[in-house]
Write a structure and sequence with these properties.
Blueprint: E1 10-15, H1 24-31, H2 33-47, E2 51-57, H3 61-78, E3 86-92, H4 101-108, E4 132-136, H5 137-141, H6 143-149, H7 151-155, E5 165-170, E6 178-183, H8 188-194, E7 203-208, E8 214-217, H9 228-233, E9 242-247, H10 252-266, H11 272-290, H12 297-310, H13 314-318, H14 320-329, H15 331-334
Parallel strand pairs: 1-2, 1-4, 2-3, 5-9
Antiparallel strand pairs: 5-6, 7-8, 7-9
Length: 342
């Protein structure tokens, strides 16, 4: 975006935090709003943008109020700069798909929030076909530390490929739930023990990274460190780092059915694999639970592969990951619902 010649460029903060169990964006917007706003200001100055838009979910009214108050305080400082710049807050309307940057851009334009075909990418033709940089809240909030203490300082924190710290959200299955800032590369077991202080009740798996994140069986926790490469290597996804416990007595088949139901309901409908595939997955699992109709293993495998390879964005392309994790690690529990599961 910086290298594109345009009289109008945009910086967008994607604060439409929709992952169940994730509250890191909410924390930063409510408690550290100036960090987020400074990150947007610095980004705009670097790429030559003159407008910054914060797209905040409507369920976070305190966050919207906090940001608006901080913008009012910051405007007097911006007025002293030789820099034409303004902020705008947009209250999102609850569509999970708007976490995807091009669907978010469509929503801001007043269009149906559908995913766009790429290329062109938003940095070339984004909001109103102008160069647009979209970043999440946590990324923008980290810019101040990088500029203030330098890149060398920041590179020393974390791992080779996952720099800095990560905000994690521990849900109510932990003895001490909440938001914690953890250095990248920290052992996941250490995080669960030192931050969460263990579980309130027996847990058989952790769903980490939102609905499209990986389902991690408890026995695999010891093999993971809190960084993107470790999760990827083990076949999981760190994502937004929300950690939701799946109780030992909760049927995994019901959990998977709920995931497909969520994915189907929240699909934007733009591409056939996601629109039809998520609904078909929900139907197969619902019929297995309620009508005792066994699922053909090969048909189910083809459905997951079609979603992965044919979906336009990570919504349809990502939902097979937790399903595959469950099939791999909870074989004994799930095999009764399939004609053949090997």
């Amino acid at each position: 975006a910086r290298n594109i010649n345009s009289s109008q460029k945009f910086i967008i903060c994607n604060a439409d935090e929709g992952d169940p169990g994730a509250y890191s964006d909410r924390y930063l917007l409510e408690k550290q709003p100036l960090l987020v706003l400074f990150g947007m200001l610095a980004s705009a100055y670097i790429v030559g943008a003159n407008s910054a838009i914060l797209y905040i979910r409507a369920e976070y009214p305190e966050a919207i109020n906090s940001i608006q108050k901080s913008i009012s305080e910051l405007n007097s400082f911006i007025a002293t700069l030789d820099f034409d710049f303004k902020y705008k807050i947009i209250s999102a309307q609850g569509a999970y798909i708007c976490g995807e940057e091009t669907a978010l851009i469509n929503s801001i334009e007043g269009q149906r929030p559908e995913v766009r075909v790429r290329p062109p990418f938003p940095t070339e033709q984004g909001l109103f076909n102008k160069p647009t940089v979209v970043n999440n809240v946590e990324t923008l909030a980290s810019i101040y530390t990088i500029l203030n203490k330098g890149g060398n300082y920041y590179r020393q924190i974390g791992t080779e490929k996952s720099k800095g710290t990560k905000l994690i959200s521990l849900d109510s299955s932990f003895n001490t739930p909440g938001i914690y800032e953890v250095e990248m590369g920290t052992a996941l077991q250490t995080v669960l023990d030192n931050c969460g202080n263990g579980f309130k009740h027996k847990i058989k798996a952790l769903h980490i990274g939102g609905p499209l994140g990986g389902i991690v069986p408890i026995e695999k926790v010891a093999d993971l460190t809190l960084d993107f490469e470790s999760f990827s290597k083990q076949g999981f996804l760190l994502g937004h780092a929300s950690v939701v416990g799946i109780p030992d007595n909760f049927p995994m088949i019901n959990y998977l059915q709920h995931l497909f139901q969520f994915a189907s309901y929240e699909s934007c409908g733009k591409c056939f694999p996601c629109r039809l595939g998520t609904k078909r997955g929900e139907e197969l699992l619902s019929n297995a639970i309620n009508k005792h109709e066994k699922i053909d293993k090969e048909l189910f495998k083809d459905l997951l592969n079609t979603l992965e390879q044919g979906s336009l964005c990570a919504h349809g392309g990502g939902i097979p990951l937790p399903i595959k994790n469950a099939l791999k690690y909870f074989y004994d529990e799930l095999k009764v619902y399939f004609i053949k599961l090997t």
